[in-house]
Design brief:
The complex is a heterodimer of chains A (112) and B (453).
Chain A lengths: L1 E7 L4 H10 L6 E7 L6 E5 L2 E5 L2 E10 L4 H12 L7 E7 L17
Antiparallel strand pairs in A: 1-5, 1-6, 2-5, 3-4
Helix pairs in contact in A: 1-2
Chain B lengths: L1 H11 L4 H8 L13 H33 L5 H27 L5 E3 L3 E2 L26 H22 L6 H23 L4 H5 L7 H19 L6 E2 L2 E2 L7 H20 L8 H33 L4 H16 L7 H24 L8 H19 L5 H29 L7 H6 L1 H6 L14
Antiparallel strand pairs in B: 1-2, 3-4
Helix pairs in contact in B: 3-4, 3-5, 3-9, 4-5, 4-6, 5-6, 5-8, 6-8, 6-14, 8-13, 8-14, 9-10, 9-11, 10-11, 10-12, 11-12, 11-13, 12-13, 13-14
The chains are: A alpha+beta (112), B mainly alpha (453).
Amino acid sequence: MKLVTAVIKPFKLEEVREALTSAGVQGLMVSEVKGYGRQSGHTEIYRGAEYVVNFVPKIKLEIAAPDGDVDKIVETIAAAARTGKIGDGKIFVSELLQALRVRTGEQGEEAL
Amino acid sequence: MRDIATMKRYFTSAAAAGALIALAGPALAQEGPVDVPAHSVFVFNSVLFLMAGFLVMFMACGFAMLEAGLVRQKNVTMQLTKNMGLFSIAAIGYYAIGYNLMYPLGDWAIEGYFSALFPAVAVMEAVGVSADAADDISYATTASDYFFQLMFCAATASIVSGVLAERIKLWPFLVFTLILTAFIYPLQASWKWGGGFLDEMGFLDFAGSTVVHSVGGWAALAGALVLGARLGKYKDGRVNPMPGSNLPLATLGTFILWLGWFGFNGGSQLAMGSIGDVADVSRIFANTNAAAAGGALAALILTQVVYKKVDLTMVLNGALAGLVSITAEPLTPTLGVATLIGAVGGAIVVFTVPMLDKMKIDDVVGAIPVHLFAGIWGTIAVVFTNPDANIVTQIISIVIVGVFVFVVSYIVWMILKIAMGGIRVSEEDEINGLDTSELGMEAYPEFGKGSQI
């Protein structure tokens, strides 16, 4: 099992969700996060005073998937989230040691 | 629309006078204010004061909403509390000594400078007063005059609260308000509107660009200097913006002030008992609106040009600066000139808000640019449209009022600082917000705190 963690632009969330649903993904977790990468922050002006916004708002997706589905999921997210401009986000894949469905007690890939 | 226009022409044309007399009877046979029955003048003037007075009263709501919107969420309840408190304290201070200090009616202890009626409470006419027993049958009821003038006094105090928001303790602020409304404001107002030495000099300030707005601005500036900036506002040579909590409230407050200003300036005609007077009140309403629009548009365009994005908070300040600018002379300008006078006020705001920040004077809502700087501009702008105004007299009066109010306010703030164990909340209380630390009550207890990153 793998955990796919994707950080994307907030306005791309709906497109990514639709693409993932079409690709057969049945569940995902979403959270609003802030951070910065190469895009770094940007400046804003309030009442004539310029200030730096260090952390840019992003959406974090987390999907637990069987090993065989991971490539497809990563490609689907990347295709749907891409604008070609700086700040499109990143996708991380990590090992997932265990999963458990709370209601039934199923474990491993059966719990996904 | 055409019918109304036709009727207007009909009634204003001299040729129609005969027909009008036939319709309305001999009372309207002659023209001009001298022929209006005294009772009508008395009644209509009083109605003007009452109507304008409750419009100006509503400005207290405007100030409260504007300030509640421009402070951070953790200080909203305190800002509303200060606004309720100051408006109510003004009613006490102005009643106790303010009204008679401001209007000596020719009875001076020091000629032109200090009322001989001091100290005495304001007294109304008797219940159901008759024409013979009225204080001044040629003017208006005393209570309507008192009510109207009290609202101006309260407006002056409202200006101060916004500047000092988010860091001043409640009680020292309220004590200052009492001194401002009972003594500082009425005394300097007596020099102009009470027939004192500034009036004798020929100083012109129709509804109070200087007498009200600059006075509030000077008192607030003195307070801001004694109080210091909010924690973290100016750090390492940078200005750190502290965005307001609720721009819909700030916008509502601005529109309420805009509405109230028709009473502020229109009522300052002080008469509505003749054709000439009601025409003047009408001119004033229209000019006041034009100036507010000019100020808002100037700020809208300038923030787009200078900062590449329109800043709503500056547009709100711009509208108010336009209103303050026209307040010294809302009668004589044409609609076009009134718009321009207001537009200059709006421009003043856009350029002086960052200037104050450079000087590390922390004005939370922009009241010093709006009321003090635009107030000075408006007082000078009288000379452009009113031939009776003299530029030197205007400037001397601005300086005299400014020095008096600033110095006295500064001394009062310093005394309060010593006598009340400081006028500023502790560092911890300021960071936690005055709502929880001083009041234990949040404005939006069920809302999220929003992003703290």
